[in-house]
Amino acid sequence: MAIYEKLEARPAPSSTKGIIHWAKENLFNSILSTVLTLVSFYFLYLIVPPLLDWMIFDATWSGTKEEITKDGARWIFIFEKFNQFIYGFYPEELYWRPNLALFIFVVYVIAFKMIDNIKVKAFIILSFPVITYILVAGGFGLEVVETDKWGGLLLTIIVASVGIIASFPIGIIFALGRQSDMPIIRTISIIYIEFIRGVPLITILFMASVILPLFFPEGMDFDKLLRALIGITLFQAAYIAEVIRGGLQAIPKGQYEAADALGLTYWKKMGLVILPQALKISIPNIVGSFISLFKDTTLILIIGLFDVLAMVTLTNSDTNWLGFETEGYVFVTMIYWVICFSMSKYAKSIENRFNTNHR
Amino acid sequence: MNKKNKPPMLSSAFYNNPENRAIIYQVMALAAIFLFTYFVLNNMFINIEKRGINTGFDFLGSEAGFGILQSLIAYDESDTHGKVFIVGLLNTILVSAIGIIFATLIGLLVGIGRLSKNWMVSKLSMVYVETFRNIPILLQILFWYNVVLAALPSPRQSISFFDSIFFNNRGLYIPKPILESGFIAVIIAFVLAIVAVIYLSNWAKKRHDETGEEFPLFGTSLAILIGAPVLVYFLSGTPATLEYAQLKGFNFRGGWTLIPELLALAFALSIYTATYIAEAVRAGIEAVPKGQKEAAHALGLKDYIILKKVVLPQALRVIIPPVINQYLNLVKNSSLATAIGYPELVTIFSGTSLNQVGQAIEIILMTMAVYLTLSILISVLMNYANKKMQIKER
């Protein structure tokens, strides 16, 4: 009986595996592709090394202003002005209050995930704005901080959160209004949504800051920030309404008919059957709309509020620290980029999760 | 009679009839709106009177008294606020048109790039989209204007291309065509070429329907569109010359000048909007089922015909609606010019004119009306194009 010795499997030919094969398949698979690859590499060579030099290798990270070299980024400016970028003119000894609000936010988010009781969840959602407002603005024994002292990233986040929270119920109402069978209600909703979506946010902010005070009796004085918040909320509501309308339209007709067959009233039908499903479908687009809003909050600098972008100019007006715009812009760019990018990744992940559910 | 058998009273109540209820709700909504409007308008008139603000549109005829950095039509300080409005509107249209053209080009390239089989190209396209989409447009405008363009050399050290295009911190200088009277012939030739191409494409389509033969329409049309005007241009004795910008003293004279404000705004708008257009293009092409391409391949069609006749017609239907929205957004975003002082509608009319005249209500409503009209115009035009693309169900 012949005994065959077991041979070791031979390695795959080098042309079908490894980095060289990969490069052949993905970088040099045709003449055009090769040219494109080379052009891309040249392009990267032009951009990446100088950028890294400026941002990291030649950058000044510490020391005093006098020791700064001119070659790279002077991040020491950002460290020096860090508090202003984050808090604006908020009194330094009171920084703990917005910080505490942020901490409570984190605790609440974790609690919200762990707790199943609907009532506790509702309490969390409703109590958070109140607690935050008292912490940031003062009152109830806490020292009051006027809104013109609010600034920086703190203001950006406040404006964005108030915008999204306040616009949500209004948006739902207009979305339902637009889908309503009642012609007058439907017309009013359509006019509102299309009017707001047809004009730039900046004209709405101008309207809120210049015309709004004329609409109310004298003595009813609106805070500048409040006016901006009203403008942004009205603006965002129109966009949220359209997003939710998309979700409402995606609900199969049978769901409406089933709810009707059960004899549910309009509000029960909407609140218990249709809206929960519509909102669930709309979540990715709602996050998308929130990202736009977060980016759009930069516009409040045009009506004279000092958000984190406006801080670039403001910190540069310090005669000791002139000419640091580039560093300021790059820093603010990174803040926005990180926040918006994470949100869009989050939206993508939700979308993927829902996709598998539907299969 | 037993009380239990009585039909429930509720259903016959006036309030519980759905139709009546609908009417009640609508009347209530209308009443609320009327009351609110009355409250608002009443307060407005009282406030206007108290503050001594003028009303009406008379201010449009009064002298503006301020200069404007750049205008497409002749304008000087003695012109009226009405003219300021026109100048601003034209500048809005100018920057929007430039932005739309470049955003579309970049968006197409990057969108197709993301689907490229070349790993580098698809990754770089992705990095482009993810980078610029996640930075607020206003921040980008300010960055290009305050950092990049401000760092360009002075006019004397201009960056020059072929000694005819100059780029420095005062702007971009390009040659300006000076048209002579004979140029009208070239324009006529161009119009005739367009008519010829329309006829040709109809004929080619008809022939294709009847015989199935392909006519090289794209190449022929391009040849006619370029060839005819160029031929007439030389035949009529080159009736157009270029006026080059020249360095005189501290700055350039002559030619066309694109001011830095316009450059920064157009640049930022194109780059930002292109990221959204790229995503729309990618989504559109990906939406075409793979089987379609495979079927076309199986039929033995050539690659470019598959692209032209199978993939693109279907992809465009998905691409066009979101792209329309992006064009609208670009037009609206051009209003951010006010942060860097490019003299478009919001900057000079809702800004400078408003400060001088103080009639906020009229001016802001006029500005909003312009954007609403532009929005409606663009969407009507594009919806028309969209309708032509739609599958005709038989």
From TrEMBL, chain A:
Per the database record, which ranges form the ABC transmembrane type-1 domain?
153-347
Indicate where this protein is primarily found.
membrane
Q: What is this protein called?
A: Amino acid ABC transporter permease
Chain segments annotated as transmembrane:
27-48, 94-111, 123-142, 154-177, 198-216, 298-316, 328-347
* Keywords, comma-separated and alphabetical: Cell membrane, Membrane, Transmembrane, Transmembrane helix, Transport
Name its species: Arcobacter roscoffensis
Q: How does it sit in the membrane?
A: Multi-pass membrane protein
Q: Which protein family is it in?
A: Belongs to the binding-protein-dependent transport system permease family. HisMQ subfamily.
Species classification: Bacteria, Pseudomonadati, Campylobacterota, Epsilonproteobacteria, Campylobacterales
From TrEMBL, chain B:
Instruction: List where in the cell it is found.
Output: Cell inner membrane; Cell membrane
The domain of life for this entry's organism is Bacteria
Which Pfam families does UniProt cross-reference here?
BPD_transp_1 (PF00528)
| Transmembrane parts of this sequence | 22-41, 84-112, 132-152, 178-200, 215-235, 256-278, 363-385
Q: Does the keyword Transport apply?
A: yes
Q: What is its main location?
A: membrane
Q: Does the keyword Zinc apply?
A: no
Q: Where is the ABC transmembrane type-1 domain?
A: 89-382
The way it spans or sits in the membrane comes to: Multi-pass membrane protein
Q: Which UniProt keywords apply?
A: Amino-acid transport, Cell membrane, Membrane, Transmembrane, Transmembrane helix, Transport
| Similarity section | Belongs to the binding-protein-dependent transport system permease family. HisMQ subfamily.
Its name, as the record gives it, is Amino acid ABC transporter permease
